[in-house]
Amino acid sequence: MKAPTKEDLDKILKENSTLGKFGFNNGIEDEINFLDFDFSVGYMYHNFIRKNKYSNNSLNSYSIKHIVENCYKDGYIPNGAVIAAGIYLKIPYKKDGYNAIFRLEDPTCQD
Asked: pTM here?
């Protein structure tokens, strides 16, 4: 995986004009911090299991945010950083209010 850059984040935000720090269409236009985005990309790339396009398994970006936060030294990851990371990783998703539903499975929930 190519390490993300600030330009990658800027491109994602330009192509997804309703995405902000706290998710889609939330009316708050705070910017997504690059370090939050970068950490989310790395964590999601290395720790989640991608599901094929026919799978019914999925995770909500807000749930992913809380999983990622458990390993983040600063302790807080905004929902928008997780959504941008999933888009960067080209993980299939659909918008769901402020959130995104990603076709991912959390490996910590495996039997």
From this structure: 0.88
* Cα separations in angstroms, 43 against 1, 4, 64, 85: 12, 12, 10, 9
Q: Residues 75-91: pLDDT tens digits?
A: 899 999 999 999 999 99
Helix (H) or strand (E) holding 100: strand 99-102
- Residue 93 in 3-state DSSP? strand
* Domain locations in the chain as residue ranges: 6-109
Residue 80, number of CB atoms within 10 A of its CB: 30
Read out DSSP for 28-65?
--PPPPHHHHHHHHHHHHHH-EEPPTT----EEHHHHH
Cα–Cα nearest to 33, from 86, 96, 102, 85:
85
Asked whether residue 27 carries a pLDDT value surpassing 70, the answer given is no
